[in-house]
Amino acid sequence: MSISHAPPTDISPKTPPGAESAGTGSAAVPELEPIAASSSRRTRVPRWLRRTSGPVALLALWQVLSATGVLTSSVLASPGRVSQVARDLVADGTLPTAMGVSLQRVALGLLFGTLIGTALALASGLFRVGEDLVDASVQMLRTVPFVGLIPLFIIWFGIGETPKIAVITLGVTFPLYLNVYAGIRSVDSQLIEAGESLGLSRWGLVRHVVLPGALPGAMTGLRYSLGIAWLALVFAEQINADSGLGFVMVQARDFLRTDVIVVCLVVYAFLGLIADFVVRTLERLLLQWRPTFTGR
Amino acid sequence: MATDVHGPVTTTRKEKPAPPPAANASAVRVQGLSRRFDGRAVIDGLELDVRPGEFVALLGRSGCGKSTLLRILAGLDREIEGTVLVPRRKAVAFQSPRLMPWKKVWRNVLLGLPGKPGRPVADKALDEVGLGHRSDAWPKTLSGGEAQRASLARALVREPDLLLLDEPFGALDALTRIKAQRLVGELWQRRGCAVLLVTHDVEEAVLLADRVLVMDDGVIAHEAHLDLPRPRDIADPEFARVRGELLERLGVETGAQDTGA
């Protein structure tokens, strides 16, 4: 068809040099090694088992240290003792009630923080005016440690639920804002141009190009926000609370009950794991277009 | 390549048998167009007319403003002086496919279409470029050639009166490029829309176009009408003559073997 585009004259598969020179005596014969098929390299151990083996090993170490007396119960209660206390706390309703209260606080804080953070990010990400009005203030406010605002919140909102939810909201808002904003601004300008050439309206561009493009950033923001939400919860509940996980912990501290404290910490860890699972699931559903490296 | 271009154009669409009826019988009319970047005129008083159904190739050295001209015709660059008339229905295929990675291929094809066209519309366009089987794939799983064909389907589904191609084969490997060029030639003959192909590949231009323009110093510096029969054969001495002439216009010695793609 054309000279510069002519197919290469020799497209027959090249035999690997090793295979050919193996027969000739004079050439140096390279040592061959087999390339194992990936299926044969995979271990037979199921994935979930491998994932749980780490925590189980830690648990075993803890039990051994407690049994040998290296860890005394005044420092850290043994796993057996902790599970016993956990069962008691569940049985008498203390733990479920406290968890319910804490979960509600986190959920509300997350909800408000997500709404505010996303709204602000959309305002400053999509509109030049919004950026001028919003971004500078948010960038300034986000450097204030939100935990430092707890005393102020108590003065403003009293000691009820409001200051606790407000602290969580505040902690959640900023990471979400930053990531959604960065996500919006990092959308490939070539795609925006393509959308324009396809005749998309301004709103169509936002809906079909900008927002989906910002989603990976938003998901990262959500991850950060969830982590901070738990952190904020612990802070908020250890000051002036009369219910919730943090309150149970403060009480336990007064009675030197390390076992109860550990139970609460484990509960925090599990709630965090669940939150992470939720985000992972969301990412799998919303970002399935993104081919990602999943590891070997 | 398909059949004789000067014969009756065989259309698959019965409702649009003839090239688009334009009042002034132009698919593109550009008069006194200038575009400046920081005071430097990249396009300087350019004149251009493209007939409906005409295949025009635009050649030029890199940086001569040919892509800028295409972007202006596409309506993506509006900081211009002069008159530019283009059909309302126009479509662009860029050098990179620019598919939205978060939309399945068929949704990409339908993106921006007025109304709420159903998937069959997209599938038909994808079938036309031989990509019907990847309709439900994510764009990032397509090969380079497949993605470029999807991009072409996205342009064609708009039934454009003017199709703007910005070096659409530049990023393809040699074998895929030959197939893609052939496909564009066939699609053009079937659709009968005007095409403006921006390229830096002289052979590609001579292979496909009715008229080859060479852009230099911000204007159309040279124009070659090609009435070579189709399908065109590079072994044809006339082909070689036109190619050599154009290469010379572009400042490449005729003896040179490579067009410098």
From TrEMBL, chain A:
Region (Disordered): 1-38
Keywords: Cell membrane, Membrane, Transmembrane, Transmembrane helix, Transport
Primary location recorded for the protein, binned into one broad class: membrane
Pfam families: BPD_transp_1 (PF00528)
Domain ABC transmembrane type-1: 95-279
CDD domains (alphabetical): TM_PBP2 (cd06261)
Localization per record: Cell membrane
Annotated TM spans: 56-77, 106-127, 139-159, 165-184, 228-248, 260-279
Protein's membrane topology: Multi-pass membrane protein
Protein's UniProt keywords contain Transmembrane: yes
Gene3D superfamilies associated with the record: MetI-like
Family according to the record: Belongs to the binding-protein-dependent transport system permease family.
Protein name (database record): ABC transporter permease
Organism: Streptomyces physcomitrii
Upper taxonomic lineage: Bacteria, Bacillati, Actinomycetota, Actinomycetes, Kitasatosporales
TrEMBL record, chain B:
Annotated coiled-coil segments of the chain: none
Residue stretches making up the ABC transporter domain: 28-242
One example GO MF annotation: ATP binding
Region feature Disordered, mapped onto this chain: 1-27
InterPro entries assigned: AAA+_ATPase, ABC_transporter-like_ATP-bd, ABC_transporter-like_CS, ABC_transporter_ATP-bind, P-loop_NTPase
Gene3D superfamilies registered for this protein in UniProt: P-loop containing nucleotide triphosphate hydrolases
Protein name: ABC transporter ATP-binding protein
Organism: Streptomyces physcomitrii
